[in-house]
Automatic annotation (TrEMBL):
Source domain of life: Eukaryota
Compartments in which it is found: Membrane
CDD domains: C2B_MCTP_PRT, C2C_MCTP_PRT
Function: Might play a role in the development of cardiac outflow tract.
Keywords linked to the UniProt accession: Calcium, Developmental protein, Membrane, Metal-binding, Repeat, Transmembrane, Transmembrane helix
Gene Ontology biological-process entries: regulation of neurotransmitter secretion
Entry protein name: Multiple C2 and transmembrane domain-containing protein 2
Length: 685
C-alpha cells in the first residue's frame, strides 16, 4: 500500500535532474534544491513522478511548469496537480515546489535559471543578478563596459564576504558542535502497552537531531528491551528527550501507540535515575534508566594551540591512559587528535569550475566539522580536532563536501581510517574514495593523527556490546550486494564441504596412506586428549599463521582479502536503475513483498558470510591487537582447564548465571564471544 517515489525534471524530452528516492511513503518530503538552465521561457518544464521498482519504474503522474508565469527574482510556491491520461484514478496527488526565476550572471548562452525546491525547503538566494537583463537592452559597447565594472565589483565583494563568512562560521561552528556531556539511556521494559499483545513493538528516542530506534520485539504487552543508547548533551540547549512507542503488524503497517517526554536539564547529574514514564493520553508506561555525565576531550582549535603539541599537556594525557590507571573511569578508553591540514586537486562541483569544500569527521556517533574554504580546489583548513575514544575498534571517517547554500552539500570524497592502524605524529596523504569506499575519487587529503589509549580498558571494552549507531536509512536491495553475499557464503560453504569430503575419503580408504595416518592420529588424540588441549590447539593454529606471515610465505592477508573484495565489488558495477517509463501498474503488492523478502535474504546472507570471515580473520592476524587478545584468552583458558576440574568451572558459571538477576537487576545481557567477533572486520570491511 505504499510507493517509493522520485521526481524527474524534463525539458525537450531530456532529463535535467533526478531526485533521490523516498522509500515507502505516499507523502514524501525530498528537501532538495536544483538550479536548471533555461534557454527559452516559452518551453514547458515537465515534472514527472515515478515509483522505483526492481526491474522498472512505474509512472505516477506528471505536471508542467509555465515559465512565462514566473516573476523575476521572486520566490513563489506552486502546488501542481499530477495527471496521467492512461490511469483510471481521478486524484493522482500533488507536488509542491518553490520556484524562483533569476538571470544567470556571466554566461551568454545560459542566462536564465529556475530554482525549484521539492518538499517546501526554502530556496537559496539566486546566484545571479537582474542587472544583466536590464543591461542586455542597451548598446553592445556600453553593455560590455558596465558588465566588466560590475563583474570586478561583485568579485571583490564576493571575496570579502566569503572571507568574513569563513571567520564567522569558524567561530559559530566551534561553539555549536562541542558537546560537554553524555546522556545514557538504558531502555528496560514496557508495562501494559496498549495493543502490544497484537503486534510487534519498538521505541523511537529523539534528543535534538539525534535519533535511535530500539530493536523490534515480539507480541507482548510487557516487552523487555534491555538496550543502552548514548546521546550527546549540550548544557546550553534546552533539549527534551522525546520517546515514541510504535507497533508494526504483519502487513508492515506502523502505528503510534503513545509518547512521553523527559526534561534532561531537570535531572541530577553524575547519578543514574530510575524513571517510570506513563504514556501521554494512553495507558501503559516505560521503565528506563537515565544518567547524565560530563564529557571531556572534545575540542576544535588552530594548529598553534593543539593539545598534544604542549609537552606538559601531552604528558598529562599520557599518564591518564597509562597501565596503572587501567581500572579508573573504565569508559574513558583513549584520546584521538586529528590535524586536518589541507586537500589538493578536488573535484569541481560548481559551474565556475571551483568548489566550496569543508570536512566532516566522524568517529562512531561523534561528529565534528571544519569551516568552509570558498572557491578553492586546494583548500587549507589547518585545524585540530580531538575526540574521546569509546571503542578502540572504531573507524575514523573523514568526508569532504562542497557547500551549496541552502541545498544539501555535494559529496566530493571520503577516507576511512581504523584507529588501530594510526601511526602517531606522521603526516599522511590519503586518496579520497567514493561513498562506498570501493573506488578512488578525485583528490587527496593531508592528515596528521595521534591516538593514545589504555590497552587494558580497550581489551575489556572489546567483550562488551558495540555502541549503537544513530538511525540510518532502511537498507535497500542491490543486485551487486546480493551477488557478493551469495559468493561469500558459497566460499564458506565450499570450505566446510571440502572438509567433510576429506573425512569421508579417509573413512572410505580412497587413499591408503592418508587413511592410515588419519586413523593413527584419531586413536592417539582420543586416548590422550585432555580438555585443556582444545585451547592449546587453537594457540598452535595462531602460531602457525603468524609464522607464515613472518616468513613471507603469506605476503599479506589483508592484501589478499582486499583483492578478493575488489573482485566481488566489481560485479555489476553498472547496477543503475532502469529509467524507462512504464505506464503499467500491476501486482504492486507482490513486488513489494518480493522486495522485502529479498532484502531479508540479502541481510541474512551477509550476516552468515561476515561471521565465517571474522572467525578466519581472527586466526589470520588481520587485526594484530585482536589476535593477541584472543591468544591471551586461550592461554588463560588452557591454564584454568589444566589446574581446575571441569565440574568446578561449570558450577561457577551456573551460579553466576542464576544470581546475576539479583546482583544487578538492570544488567544488559550480552554474549562476549559475539561481541569480540563484531570487532573483527569481514573481508569486505
Amino acid at each position: 500500500g505504499t510507493s517509493d517515489p522520485y521526481v524527474k525534471f524534463k525539458l525537450n524530452g531530456k532529463t535535467l535532474y533526478k531526485s533521490k528516492v523516498v522509500y515507502k511513503n505516499l507523502n514524501p518530503v525530498w528537501d532538495e534544491t536544483v538550479v536548471l538552465p533555461i534557454q527559452n521561457l516559452s518551453q514547458k518544464l515537465w515534472v514527472k513522478v515515478y515509483d522505483r521498482d526492481l526491474t522498472s519504474s512505474d509512472f505516477m503522474g506528471s505536471a508542467f511548469i509555465a515559465l512565462t508565469e514566473l516573476e523575476l527574482n521572486r520566490t513563489t510556491e506552486q502546488i501542481l496537480k499530477l495527471e496521467d491520461p492512461n490511469s483510471l484514478e481521478d486524484d493522482m496527488g500533488v507536488i509542491v515546489l518553490n520556484l524562483s526565476l533569476a538571470v544567470k550572471q556571466g554566461d551568454f548562452k545560459r542566462n536564465v535559471s529556475v530554482t525549484g525546491c521539492l518538499g517546501g525547503l526554502q530556496p537559496s538566494p539566486a546566484p545571479c543578478s537582474s542587472v544583466w537583463r536590464a543591461v542586455c537592452r542597451g548598446d553592445c559597447v556600453r553593455m560590455k563596459k558596465q558588465f566588466c565594472m560590475y563583474k570586478r565589483f561583485t568579485s571583490l565583494l564576493a571575496f570579502q564576504s566569503s572571507f568574513m563568512r569563513s571567520v564567522r562560521l569558524s567561530d559559530s561552528l566551534r561553539k555549536n558542535q562541542l558537546w560537554n556531556g553524555l546522556v545514557t539511556i538504558t531502555l528496560l521494559e514496557g508495562k501494559n502497552i496498549p495493543g502490544g499483545g497484537l503486534a510487534e513493538i519498538f521505541i523511537l528516542l529523539k534528543l535534538g537531531d539525534q535519533r535511535y530506534k530500539s530493536k523490534t520485539l515480539c507480541k507482548s504487552a510487557n516487552p523487555q528491551w534491555r538496550e543502552q543508547f548514548d546521546f550527546h548533551y549540550f548544557s546550553d540547549r534546552k533539549d527534551i528527550l522525546d520517546i515514541e512507542v510504535w507497533r508494526k503488524d504483519n502487513k508492515k503497517h506502523e502505528e503510534l501507540l503513545g509518547t512521553c517526554k523527559v526534561d534532561i536539564t531537570a535531572l541530577p547529574t553524575k547519578q543514574t535515575n530510575r524513571l517510570e514514564l506513563p504514556l501521554e493520553k494512553h495507558p501503559g508506561s516505560l521503565l528506563m534508566l537515565v544518567a547524565v555525565a560530563p564529557c571531556t576531550g572534545v575540542s576544535i582549535s588552530d594548529l598553534c594551540v593543539c593539545p598534544l603539541g604542549d609537552p606538559t599537556e601531552r604528558k598529562q594525557i599520557s599518564q591518564r591512559y597509562c597501565i596503572k590507571n587501567s581500572f579508573q573511569d573504565i569508559k574513558d578508553i583513549g584520546f584521538l587528535q586529528v590535524k586536518v591540514l589541507k586537500a589538493a586537486d578536488l573535484l569541481a562541483a560548481d559551474f565556475s569550475g571551483k568548489s566550496d569544500p569543508f570536512c566532516v569527521l566522524e568517529l562512531g556517533n561523534d561528529s565534528l566539522q571544519t569551516h568552509t574554504v570558498y572557491k578553492n580546489l586546494n583548500p587549507e583548513w589547518n585545524k585540530v580536532f580531538t575526540f574521546p575514544i569509546k571503542d578502540i575498534h572504531d573507524v575514523l571517517e573523514v568526508t569532504v563536501f562542497d557547500e551549496d547554500g541552502d541545498k544539501p552539500p555535494d559529496f566530493l570524497g571520503k577516507v576511512a581510517i581504523p584507529l588501530l592502524s594510526i601511526r602517531n605524529g606522521k603526516q599522511s596523504c590519503y586518496t579520497l574514495k567514493n561513498k562506498d569506499l570501493e573506488r578512488a575519487s578525485k583528490g587527496v587529503i593531508y592528515l596528521e593523527l595521534d591516538v593514545l589509549f589504555n590497552p587494558v580498558k580497550a581489551s575489556i571494552r572489546t567483550f562488551k556490546p558495540r555502541e549503537k549507531r544513530f538511525m540510518e536509512e532502511n537498507r535497500k536491495f542491490s543486485k551487486k550486494i546480493l551477488s557478493r553475499n551469495v559468493d561469500r557464503v558459497k566460499k564458506i560453504t565450499m570450505a566446510i564441504w571440502n572438509t567433510i569430503q576429506f573425512l569421508r575419503s579417509c573413512f572410505l580408504w580412497e587413499s591408503t596412506v592418508k587413511s592410515v595416518i588419519a586413523f593413527v592420529v584419531f586413536v592417539i588424540t582420543v586416548w590422550s586428549v585432555e580438555l585443556y588441549m582444545v585451547p592449546l590447539a587453537l594457540l598452535v593454529l595462531f602460531a602457525y599463521n603468524f609464522s607464515l606471515i613472518k616468513t613471507g610465505k603469506v605476503s599479506s592477508t589483508q592484501d589478499a582479502q582486499a583483492s578478493e573484495a575488489a573482485e566481488l565489488m566489481g560485479l555489476d558495477e553498472d547496477d543503475d536503475e532502469d529509467d524507462k517509463e512504464s505506464e503499467k501498474k500491476g501486482l504492486i503488492e507482490r513486488i513489494h513483498m518480493v522486495q522485502e523478502i529479498i532484502i531479508a535474504v540479502q541481510s541474512i546472507l551477509e550476516e552468515i558470510a561476515s561471521f565465517g570471515e571474522r572467525i578466519k580473520n581472527t586466526f589470520n592476524w588481520t587485526v594484530p591487537f585482536l589476535s593477541v587478545l584472543a591468544c591471551l584468552v586461550l592461554v588463560a583458558a588452557t591454564v584454568i582447564l589444566y589446574y581446575i576440574p571441569l565440574r568446578y568451572i561449570v558450577l561457577i558459571w551456573g551460579i553466576n548465571k542464576f544470581t546475576k538477576k539479583f546482583r544487578n537487576p538492570y544488567a544488559i545481557d550480552n554474549n562476549e564471544l559475539l561481541d569480540f567477533l563484531s570487532r573483527v572486520p569481514s573481508d569486505v570491511q
